[in-house]
Design a protein that fits this description.
The protein has 517 residues and is mainly β. The protein contains two helices and 38 strands. The strands form nine sheets. Strands 32, 33, 34, 35, 36, 37 and 38 form a seven-stranded antiparallel β-sheet that branches. The two termini are 32 Å apart.
Length: 517
């Protein structure tokens, strides 16, 4: 659910202070207590992010780097070395369409980026190639493509880190004769120079064609890799910069479909876990991945779509949740507030200092509604926060160091107590029932009391089948009309809106509904 905008004091962080105690405290006689106040500053970055590939954020001692590859093959970076004002790099025309970056990392007094993909014309048709592609830069602003070797066949590069001066990449091989069909095998590669790569063996891998490594992190010198094999989540660890790996068999990691993200700061590491059944879960380790347990105060996960992405930096951890109200499973919410069911997924930012206790961040200072949503976030070396929105263009919002992030409580989702026909019971005459009506096939048929009712007429002649316009003011979301059914006679009912307007009448008939495409 999107947080509703609420006002809070916005002042220049270095110019003003917010007084939080009364002047001249007569009770204690102590000094006034002042805390600094802050505001989000905004900068729009040039370049176009790829539709299916994420924009890469890196934050470390070398600065803050934002890197994106457009679908038509233009590499664009922005770098902030001191403070949080970004300088735009020189766009690099790679000539490669549909290449995605797996990651960027500082290396050899410069920067290295690794990706995969590419589209080539073969016999007049475009075919995806899934080739590894490397880029290098001395200053993070001017880039050039470099040849990379050691990737045997088509690959996906999903992550890149540096450990002890060695570059480590992770992803998957595509083993099918047609690589577009997959045949995934989890893979990790290491390189001293970014040009010559060597694949490292991963234990515990099942050759099921659906396995992969999704992410990498370095926790106090130890490499952590997460992914999936044989239909369950996997964690691999390496203590020698990726040369040899061990499979983690922790009980906390069992019963999972996949481990999707891993981040670390010092000895504290987090993984995002996708259970075989249930919402996403964040696991936490304080000993470089030797042991894991669920985060105690993690963000609410009910109704969350997908997994919980993770970022880390500047002494903080971050995640975003994507909430979507499903009309078929939560009609009680739609009857209470139809607007909640009409909106797209609502994205909310959460932050934590220790990965254990999480706070919902108030982003109303960035914007309201979708304009206040954040798609990625990372901590800055000075302790500030960078929040990024990628919606056709890249906008970054920076929260200053030394100022508490603005937080807010969890919103209360409204609902009504539904009046419905109990299973096995018949509807009663005169009772007004909540009766969601799925409109994809039109309004000819309504189900109430485990039987179909056929439309016989009504004040509205609108059919509202697939593709038809719904009258303005009708409470419709996700092709479902949230109206009410009232039996006026045992075999006849009226269908009405909230204000009582009858828009259709239905009767019991012997015929059965026809199939609908």
């Amino acid at each position: 659910m999107t947080p509703r905008p609420r006002p809070y004091l916005l002042v220049a962080p270095l110019a003003l202070l917010l007084l939080v105690s009364g002047c001249g405290n007569e009770t204690s006689g102590g000094p006034e207590v002042l805390t600094p106040a802050g505001e989000w500053t905004t900068q729009e970055l040039r370049g176009t992010p790829g539709v299916d590939f994420p924009t890469i954020l890196y934050s470390g001692d070398q600065g803050v780097l934002v890197a994106m590859l457009s679908d038509d093959g233009v590499l664009q970076t922005h770098l902030a070395e001191e403070g949080t004002s970004f300088s735009a790099g020189e766009p690099l025309e790679t000539g490669r369409e549909y290449v995605g970056l797996g990651g960027v990392a500082p290396h050899a007094d410069g920067w290295f980026a690794l990706g995969s993909g590419g589209l080539e014309e073969v016999d007049g048709d475009g075919e995806l190639q899934f080739e590894a592609v490397g880029f290098t830069s001395e200053d993070g602003l001017a880039w050039e493509e470099v040849p990379v070797t050691g990737f045997a066949g088509p690959v996906d590069v999903n992550a890149l880190v540096e450990a002890d001066g060695v570059l480590v990449a992770a992803g998957a091989h595509r083993g099918e004769a047609d690589p577009a069909m997959g045949g995934f095998r989890p893979s990790v590669w290491v390189s001293d120079d970014g040009v010559s790569w060597t694949e490292a063996a991963l234990p515990g891998v099942t050759e099921d064609g659906e396995s992969y490594v999704a992410d990498l992190a370095v926790s106090d010198g130890r490499l952590l890799a997460v992914g999936s094999t044989d239909g369950h989540g996997m964690l691999w660890t390496s203590d020698d910069a990726g040369v040899t790996w061990q499979a983690d068999e922790s009980d906390a990691l069992r019963g999972t479909y996949a481990l999707s993200n891993v981040v670390a700061q010092g000895a504290t590491a987090l993984v995002s876990l996708m259970p075989s059944d249930g919402p996403p879960l964040i696991l936490r380790s304080t000993d470089r991945g030797d042991s894991w347990s669920p985060a105690a105060g993690q963000p609410p996960a009910e109704d969350i779509e997908g997994y919980a992405p993770l970022w880390a930096g500047g002494g903080r951890f971050f995640t975003v949740t994507s909430v979507f109200v499903e009309t078929w499973s939560e009609p009680e919410v739609c009857y209470a507030d139809i607007a909640l069911c009409q909106q797209d997924s609502a994205v909310t930012l959460y932050a934590s200092d220790d990965g254990d206790d999480w706070s919902r961040i108030d982003t109303s200072g960035i914007g309201s509604g979708e304009d206040g949503e954040v798609h990625e976030a990372i901590g800055l070396p000075d302790g500030g926060v960078l929040a990024m929105r990628a919606e056709g263009r890249i906008t970054v919002h920076t929260w200053p160091a030394g100022v508490d992030l603005p937080t807010e409580g969890e919103p209360t989702v409204p609902h009504v107590d539904l009046v419905q026909v109990d299973e096995g019971e018949e509807p009663e005459v005169g009772v007004r029932y909540h009766a969601p009506l799925y409109l994809h096939c039109g309004m000819d048929w309504l189900y109430l009391g485990d039987r179909p009712w056929k439309r016989t007429g009504g004040d509205s002649e609108v059919e509202t089948g697939a593709g038809d316009d719904v009258p303005v003011g009708w409470p419709v979301a996700q092709q479902t009309l949230f109206g009410y059914a009232t039996l006026v006679e045992p075999d006849r009912l009226e269908y009405s809106l909230e204000d009582g307007e009858v828009i259709a009448t239905y009767a019991v008939v012997e015929e059965q509904p026809a199939l609908c495409d």
